[in-house]
Amino acid sequence: xxxxxxxxxxxxxxxxxxxxxxxxxxxxxxxxxxxxxxxxxxxxxxxxxxxxxxxxxxxxxxxxxxxxxxxxxxxxxxxxxxxxxxxxxxxxxxxxxxxxxxxxxxxxxxxxxxxxxxxxxxxxxxxxxxxxxxxxxxxxxxxxxxxxxxxxxxxxxxxxxxxxxxxxxxxxxxxxxxxxxxxxxxxxxx
Length: 190
Fold this sequence. Notes:
Layout: H1 11-28, H2 33-50, H3 54-71, H4 81-93, H5 109-121, H6 123-145, H7 151-178
Helix pairs in contact: 1-4, 2-3, 2-4, 3-4, 3-5, 3-6, 4-5, 6-7
């Protein structure tokens, strides 16, 4: 029978995670965005092979989406969102973390915590991208079924949706910052 636990992370403990993220971000500054994305993708593959927890597996799927949004030419994630996602992926891409991944049972706990914190920080970017990706698939299928195959129109309908979602993402982030910030200001407070 599985054991369910609630984990409360104190402000002091959050400060520790922030300091780890700060160090990771400093090391990642020497790497290109492509290197960070590739390293994060590889880390997700490595972590997924050892992850048996649905919680961890679900978070790893979300990290794949973060990498996907950076590489998706049709999404065109604007700054500063692009930098924020890269900074969030920097920890995941880092091969040395707080608890070595090969430690049985506990090896992925620090990764799961940090991934959850990164996902909370980047929730608006991730939600907007997932909505864009769903819209793109559904609209492409609808247009294909209707017999509209002209590629020139694709950028038109995708561009309108992309701009609307980028604006909404920015507005939500600004609203969060006006209210005192997101639950965990991992990236913006560094």
